[in-house]
Structures are given as C-alpha cells and as structure tokens.
Amino acid sequence: MTTEPAIRVENLNVSFGDSHVVKDLSFSVASGESYGIVGESGSGKSTVLRVLSGLNRHWSGTVEIAGQTQPKIRDKAFYRAVQMVFQDPYGSLHPKKTVDDTLAEPLAIHAIGDAETRIGRAMSEVGLPASFRFRYPHQLSGGQRQRVAIARALVLEPTILLLDEPTSALDVSIQAEVLNLLQALRHERKLTYILVSHDLAVVAHMCQRLLVMQFGQGVEEMTAQTLAARTPKTDYARQLLTASEGFRRV
Length: 250
Known about the structure:
single chain; 250 residues; alpha/beta; Rossmann fold; 4-stranded antiparallel β-sheet
C-alpha cells in the first residue's frame, strides 16, 4: 500500500505582472482526503486551483499528481484523472447545449466509447432524473445546473476533484444538498478533493484538513477538529473564525 500523496505542491509561485499572488506555497493531500483552502478574496486560493487544474500555465515550483511531476501544459491523461467544478453553475454550462451534449462532449474528446452507460450513471449519481437529459440550462434551477456540472466532472471517472466555491452561487436552501451530494460521492468513488471556500462552516463540514491563506501565503494548516474547537495557532486564522458569523461544525 502506497503512502504517496495524491497531490503535492512545493514552493508554488504565481505572479500577474507586478502582483505576486501566490508565494512559496507548499502542501500535500493524501489519496482519498478532502482538503480545504480558505482565505479572504484575493488571498490566492482560487489561483492555486487554476494551477492544479492546468488552467494557469504561468507558475514556478513543483506540482505532483499521484507521484508524477506535472508540466505547465497537461496531457489528456491528466484531465481524465483530475476534474474541476466551478463556482458559477450559470456561466460554466453552454446555454445552447443540452445536458446530454454537455456530458457527451468530454467522452468524445477522450474517445471513450461507453457514453450511454457513463452518462446514465453520472446523472443517477448526482440525483438528476433521466428525463432531464435533453433539457437546456435555462430549463434547470441553479442547484440542478451545479449537479450537471458535477456530473460532467464525474463522467470521465477521475480520481481527483477540484472544487472552487461549489455552492457559493446557490441559494442557501440548496447549498447543503449539494455539499452532502459531494460528500457521498467522495466516499462512494474514493475521490480526493481540494475545496476552495471563504466559508469556514462549509470547510468544517467537508474537509479533514485545511490550509489558511493570506496575501498568497499559507499561514496555518490545521485539522477540522482544530477548526471546530476554535483553537487555531495564528492571529489571522482566529480573526477568520471570529469574522465567520454563524460558524458551526455541521
């Protein structure tokens, strides 16, 4: 049995012009773990996900996935293993493509033949009835659209999901449904998650460990138990806790 981390980041640096947005960041995520990255807007947390996903190619440092050092430009095999769910379920789906089109596209790109089986399974796993298969995004609620986005990520049967504020654009009443769905999927598929969020209650519910970022740097790594006990070591992490009104361990 291997102890090799699913994800390892060493001395990651990202700059946009004169702005140094991620500074010498290092962390690792075990296989099957759910790992949170939290911080205020502008802390660099979403930039880290964009580097991990291959969307941002302008960085320095080391990124390893399953022990393989990743180049700036990833190959197709990478995208079968690593998928991302974006924050905005309205912007991430093509308005003129049906659910079926959206789920079939990645399978066609990767020349995967059992499209019918995979699409049906993915829809079932995210709780979408088969009757939704030929609907367009405007015929779906925000929560249903995000379920389609999750199904699109799952249809390639990846081992890692990168989640960028996956419920922040949704109504509060359905946020918990989507989070519980993501929890169940991680256990069923033995997935590894990195969840970016500004919401400490979401991170406490979803993650086993978390990294607190400020101004592009990792200031503290802690367990969910430390977060729940409200006993972080750094002043900044304590300030984040204080600022998160209504925080509770779900």
